[in-house]
Write a structure and sequence with these properties.
About 30% of the residues lie in helices and about 20% in strands. The chain is of the alpha/beta class and about 325 residues long. The structure holds NADP nicotinamide-adenine-dinucleotide phosphate.
């Protein structure tokens, strides 16, 4: 099989370093370049001691046309110009930022506070929730890799959405994330002494930017009234747990619906009855663990879903999408 040539922009950040780590060990990929701005000229290992010894190069010094696939591990906004350049150079672009997740330019402007620089691309970009978008990913030029919280929530709800069971229910998602979810840029709320021994709700209710892509995809996957979403910062480095309350309880055979939907999925596990998904089930893996809890006497279903925010919530799903796009074994390198 032909080897895939890959490049990573923004390699010094948390998702960038994870993407480089996965690609450098991938059996079918040659990593052609990894870029940085101020740290160009150094090795990624100088910044992340566990990372492979990969030289960091300046964007100006690389040739985008030299790669088949370009991973963008940049802040939203910064990924737009890089996407255009990558597509013009003939690359498949996998954007880990939020720049190509929303399909409606007006929604992008409302949630991200600035107009999108390439609104024409928003209609074309495929939302890369791998398990539910394989056919479109196989033909995509541009993949908007899902956000970390949305991945945990959408994988947990998609089987019921697909079965048409959530159109009239209230969905409340209470999610908790480790501090790496906020990226590597220094800020006071992320200091050890602010995070340690604390648990901080933030953007409570309907204000976190991820609400936009969650609601877009709830609709696309089968329809729902919307979501109330409250994220929390917890004193761990990586991992997300989403506890999702569904009322009223959608009738009958819930476990069969989930087990059927995910029985042949390599990265999604529906836990047996009586078990509860925890961070430990999925941390440092590309897996999503789901547990189901029926509260019949209160007409409520609780779905608990966990992922590693940097893997299934970012770099792992991005590599999984590359595998699907290029016809590789979906599990390769993961
Ligand atoms: N962290 C997560 O769990 C997670 C999960 C899913 C998606 N994401 C998304 O993935 C993207 C990267 O996240 P992250 O957590 O890896 O962030 P990060 O740790 O802050 O890293 C972002 C990297 O982008 C580079 N960069 C910053 N501003 C830039 C600019 N204007 N132009 C070019 N490069 C710039 C920086 O590297 P240099 O300064 O070396 O150039 C920085 O290391 C974000 O859009 C984020 O929302 C993050």
């Amino acid at each position: 099989m032909t080897r895939i040539k890959a490049g990573v922009l923004g390699a010094t950040g948390y998702t960038g370093a994870e993407t480089v780590r996965l690609l450098a060990a991938h059996p079918d990929v040659d990593l052609a370049f990894a870029t940085a701005r101020t740290d160009a000229g150094r090795s990624l290992r100088d910044l992340h001691p566990g990372a492979p010894d990969v030289p960091l190069r300046r964007l100006e010094d690389i040739e985008l046309a030299a790669v088949d696939v370009l991973f963008l591990c940049l802040p939203h906004g910064a990924a737009q110009e890089a996407t255009r350049q990558g597509l013009e150079a003939g690359c498949v672009v996998i954007d880990l930022s939020a720049d190509h997740r929303l399909h409606d330019p007006a929604a992008y402007e409302r949630w991200y506070g600035a107009p999108h620089g390439s609104p024409d691309l928003l209609g074309e970009a495929v939302y890369g929730l791998t398990e539910w978008r394989r056919d479109r990913i196989r033909a995509a030029r541009l993949i908007g890799n899902p956000g970390c919280y949305p991945t945990s929530i959408l994988l947990a709800l998609a089987p019921l959405l697909g079965a048409g069971r959530l159109r009239d229910t209230t969905i409340i998602a209470d999610s908790k994330s480790g501090a790496s979810g906020a990226g590597r840029t220094a800020s006071v709320p992320l200091l050890f002494s602010e995070v340690n021994e604390n648990l901080r709700p933030y953007n409570v209710g309907h204000v976190h930017r991820h609400v936009a892509e969650i609601e877009q995809e709830l609709e696309a996957l089968g329809g729902a009234k919307g979501v109330v979403f409250s994220p929390h910062l917890v004193p761990i480095t990586r991992g997300i747990v989403s506890t999702i309350y569904i009322q009223p309880y959608p009738p009958s055979d819930i476990r069969t619906i989930y087990e059927t939907a995910y029985s042949s999925e390599p990265f999604v596990e529906v836990l047996p009855e009586g078990q509860t998904a925890t961070i430990a089930h999925t941390v440092r893996s590309n897996r999503c663990a789901i547990s189901l809890h029926e509260v019949a006497e209160r007409d409520t279903l609780i779905v608990v879903s966990t992922i590693d925010n940097l893997l299934k919530g970012a770099a792992g799903q991005a590599v999984q999408n590359m595998n699907v796009r290029f016809g590789l074994d979906e599990r390769a390198g993961l």
